Amino acid sequence: MRFFTGPRGRICLPCQKKARSQSAHAARVQSTYGLGPGEYERLLSAQGGVCAVCRQSRARRLDVDHCHRTGIVRGLCCARCNRQLLARGLRDDPVIARAAAAYLENPPAVQILGKRFYNKST
Prior knowledge:
The chain is of the alpha+beta class. It has six helices and four strands, in the order ββαααββααα. The chain has a two-stranded antiparallel sheet with strand order 1-2. A two-stranded antiparallel sheet has the order 3-4.
């Protein structure tokens, strides 16, 4: 039997597969986020099976995104958007999100200096 080392010690392949199963995922989502049976799938279907932020489909399950202050479940996001963008970059703050969008749409350097292009070779 093959064993894998994980944060909880050595895990055999059948146990690892069982932990990743649909029923284990549903139980974890219910206990952690309060989503009832079928609500994750309902959200996923309503979002068209894609991340609520970047609108890309992913090979892995989408994360349940929630506000860290209120605990309200907001939707399903890919790990990249949920962990890097929302949790770290925007810090759950819509003011920062709007400011970041304005910055990307109208960068100050282009207004002040005109278009300058990054040269990777130097």
